[in-house]
Amino acid sequence: MPKLLMATNNQGKAREYRHLLEGLPFQLVTPAEAGIDMTVDERYGTFEENAQLKATSYASLSRLIALADDSGLEVDALGGAPGIRSARFAGDEADDKDRVQHLLAKLKEVPWEKRTARFRCVIAIATPEGRTELCHGECPGVIAFEPKGDNGFGYDPAFYLPEFGKTMAELPPEMKNQVSHRAKAAREAYRMLEQLAEKVKP
Hints:
Layout: E1 3-6, H1 11-20, E2 27-29, H2 47-62, E3 65-75, H3 96-106, E4 116-126, E5 132-143, E6 159-161, E7 166-167, H4 173-179, H5 181-197
Helix pairs in contact: 4-5
């Protein structure tokens, strides 16, 4: 079975992709499992450019098909921030809890009806030969007044989904993997990877 490199060092993200891409005729591996120690500087201003940069960099180095994403939270009351800076919003050394608290502090005086937001995800699939494809996913919601839930990672505890009456972190993983921004982009990626698998020999 050919290998598919998940170009992320985020264990939570890699775990989600193993669920979302289950059933594909690929062996999913992380950079660590492939013996790759590389960090790609996400220097561009859009999710699309950063995802493509990561995927092509890892595909070129590993000579494997690589899947990378760039994803983040866009909050309307913050002019679309944190956006591409979602992971660094509270500083380079911050953890998930720090980021959530920083976000909620920024929105302390913002009323419920103006706390609209969305998670966005762009997945890039790159071949060692340089071919790339992009897939998009979006999940709308509202920033809660306080974090709730122990599932998920990142801003999930603060991201409220009105249709469920719960935050993303309160949803069971199987439900999140149906409705999240990453799930929607991954469904598109799944179809592309099925086609690619037919052309690739292990």
